[in-house]
Amino acid sequence: MRKRPDKTLGESLRDHGLSRRGFLKLCATTASLMALPPSLAPAIAAALEQARRPSVIWLSFQECTGCTESLTRSHAPTLEDLIFDFISLDYHHTLQAASGEAAEAARFQAMEENKGQYLVIVDGSIPGPDANPGFSTVAGHSNYDILMETVEHAAAVIAVGTCAAFGGLPQARPNPTGAMSVMDLVRDKPVINVPGCPPIPMVITGVVAHYLVFGRLPELDAYHRPLAFYGQSIHDRCYRRPFYDKGLFAERFDDEGARQGWCLYRLGCKGPTTYNACATMKWNDGTSWPIEAGHPCLGCSEPKFWDAGGFYEPVSVPLTLGPTTLLGAGAAGGVIGGGLAAMARKQVKQDAATRQPVTVDELEQKL
Amino acid sequence: MSGSMEFLLWTKGPLFNIALAIFAIGLMARLVEIFMLGRAPNYAEPRAHEWPAGLRTMLTRTVADPGTFQRAPFNVVVGWVWHLGFLTALLFFVPHVELIQGVLGFAWPALPNPVVDFATAITLLALIATLVHRLTHPVKRHISTIEDYLVWAVVFMVVLTGYLAYHRLVEPYPLALGMHILCAEILLIILPFTKLTHIFTTFIARWYNGAAFGRKGVQS
């Protein structure tokens, strides 16, 4: 097992050859990433300089490893690699799978040594307590048991990826494994969601940096997502937004509108309902992002994105209703109306048949 | 339903099915009932054809005659403005055209967003004016019922939430869009059971009147 160095983050960074100027640039970028005023950059520098590497335990459950791929294979070496070097990743299910019992021992040791201090990063959804635990196990233990045991003395839990944050693909209908999100299961610890399929690498490092600098988790939205990254929708920051406002839309993937780079709303873009930082931070070292590549946003950082309508259906199209339902309901209404009219006609006929004319004399007699 | 996205998916999914089913059943029941009730056979020899007079009246009663305009210019002008604005937004806004395509399987070209935006803003102002007029005009106020105010409120809410959602003035957006869809669903549900049914019966009634007068050979 790797021994945790006692160096501060500043010392470690200098050992890695990062200049003072480079370090301050990192701090300024971190500040802007987290939507903090530039004046806080020196404070971030001071805090990061002194920070000790926090122990991190990374649990992988029902996931595709795409999130880990996104984070570890991001354009190296950059800020996220640097920061990643400066947390103490004491356990990672997937990366340490070959280590077997030794890895499990490392997890227990990290939990014991850093009781109440360590961070747990979860990647993947968990078959809930009522589901068959056999759907996903690690070292013979159910995902649920491992999660609950590990988070018991954690400082906070970071759910990375849409599966961990919202259930994601495993939870899509009919949810055969009874998949649940971390937020559904962990109620007594701060849970911070970093959804995306996968999430942007900078977002996870930004969250960790925030924790190192301020000693607490960043401000979150209603879905426990850090506001700095998920505070604005794709649509509001999309460079194609002027085309939406002008009403210029691509109607097919091969039409003139698509070639001109017009808005992808009618091709199913979920940008209007999706909150993420893709439009501003982009992917692959700021190279591009899905909409820039000509594909509508799938809305992968939102709950239930697999069940939220077809990827190529516009946001305004209802989820399940089609012409047949409407025709069926209309026909049923026609039958009901016909029945009511028939009853009314019958009543009129009956009244006519049983009508008893009254003469003026008869009425006067009654008076 | 723990968040705005779940709310939006609920309004776009199950609730939309329920609302449209109630709307279709209710509307068809009323229309079929009206048509099937019929009227007593008229044995008098017709003096003229029914159809030309019926169609003419559909048009003539749509355009107010000078007398009506002089008596109630506000009703005519503001009524026309908000009805046209509402129909423009309802039938020609891109997301609505996509919705119609999704539900009916066919649709028509849409208008540019700024045009629809302008029509919606005008509609909102006109609707507010109709409410103020209704509340201040002594006769209108006297003859207004709870149903009139309910119908006004539902129509106004549909337009207002749509305007707020389009301009993204409510955060998070799924909540704004969900509220708009919910209001539209309330409108669909109450439509067959309130005077909103006029959307489908007005022109039928105008034809009927015109045809009846035309048969007798009198102007309608």
UniProtKB/TrEMBL annotation, chain A:
Which of UniProt's keywords are assigned here? 3Fe-4S, 4Fe-4S, Iron, Iron-sulfur, Metal-binding, Oxidoreductase, Signal
Reaction it catalyzes:
H2 + A = AH2
Q: What residue stretches are annotated with the Cytochrome-c3 hydrogenase C-terminal domain?
A: 230-309
Task: Give the residues the record marks as binding [3Fe-4S] cluster.
Answer: 278, 297, 300
Q: Which Pfam families match?
A: NiFe_hyd_SSU_C, Oxidored_q6
Q: Which InterPro entries match?
A: Cytochrome-c3_hydrogenase_C, NADH_UbQ_OxRdtase-like_20kDa, NiFe-Hase_small_C_sf, NiFe_Hase_small_N_sf, NiFe_hydrogenase_ssu, TAT_signal, TAT_signal_bac_arc
The residues listed in the UniProt record as binding [4Fe-4S] cluster 2, with positions renumbered to this chain, are 235, 238, 263, 269
What the entry lists under PROSITE patterns is as follows:
TAT
Q: Which segments constitute the NADH:ubiquinone oxidoreductase-like 20kDa subunit domain?
A: 64-210
Q: Which GO terms describe its cellular component?
A: [Ni-Fe] hydrogenase complex; cell envelope; ferredoxin hydrogenase complex; membrane
EC top class named in words: oxidoreductase
**Which residues are listed for [4Fe-4S] cluster 1 binding in this entry?**
64, 67, 163, 197
- Single GO molecular function: 3 iron, 4 sulfur cluster binding
**Which EC numbers characterise this protein's activity in its record?**
1.12.99.6
Known cofactor(s): [4Fe-4S] cluster; [3Fe-4S] cluster
Where does the record say this protein resides? Cell envelope
**Might you name a Gene Ontology BP term for this protein?**
anaerobic respiration
SUBUNIT field:
Heterodimer of a large and a small subunit.
Family in the record: Belongs to the [NiFe]/[NiFeSe] hydrogenase small subunit family.
What's the protein here called? hydrogenase (acceptor)
Task: Provide the species name.
Answer: Allochromatium palmeri
The top of its lineage is: Bacteria, Pseudomonadati, Pseudomonadota, Gammaproteobacteria, Chromatiales
UniProtKB/TrEMBL annotation, chain B:
User: TM spans, by residue?
Assistant: 15-37, 74-95, 115-137, 149-166
Keywords in alphabetical order, please.
Answer: Membrane, Transmembrane, Transmembrane helix
Q: Which Gene3D superfamilies match?
A: Transmembrane di-heme cytochromes, Chain C (1.20.950.20)
Designated name of the protein? Nitrate reductase
Native source species: Allochromatium palmeri
